[in-house]
Amino acid sequence: MTTLSKQRIQHNQVAIYAVAALLSVGAGFGLPSASSVLEPLINPVLAVLLYVTFLEIPFVRIRRAFRNGRFMAAALGMNFLVV
User: Fold this and answer.
1) Half-sphere exposure of 64 (CA within 13 A, CB side)
2) CB atoms closer than 10 angstroms to residue 48
3) CA–CA dist 8, 46 (Å, integer)
4) CA distance linking residue 69 with residue 75, whole number of Å
5) Residue 1 lies inside a defined structural domain of this protein
6) Is the residue at 26 inside a domain?
7) Domain limits at 39?
């Protein structure tokens, strides 16, 4: 039996989220009667996913990121392009 290490989960985080999203869409279409039971779980599950995602951010180095002009220009540019 293999154990999932933190590093392995971090490396595959996007794939794990994508598989979870696909499974939830499949469950939604496959079991439409379960939507009334599962719908209240959407916000708590999203909160947990965001919490786990933000645990990975090194907030100690965030000041350095805000001083990086290229990074801020790219982040703001993408924000205005997408939104």
Assistant:
1) 5
2) 10
3) 22
4) 10
5) no
6) yes
7) 6-82
- pLDDT tens for each residue of 32-78: 888 888 889 889 988 988 888 888 777 788 888 888 889 889 999 99
pTM score, two decimals? 0.52
Between the alpha carbon of residue 58 and those of residues 55, 62, 82, the distances in Å are 8, 7, 25
Q: Which of 46, 63, 42, 64 has its CA nearest to residue 54?
A: 46
Residue 66 forms part of a structural domain: yes
Pure H helices in the chain: 6-11, 13-30, 35-38, 42-55, 62-67, 69-82
User: Does 69 map to a domain?
Assistant: yes
Number of domains in the chain: 1
Q: What is the mean pLDDT of residues 8-36?
A: 86
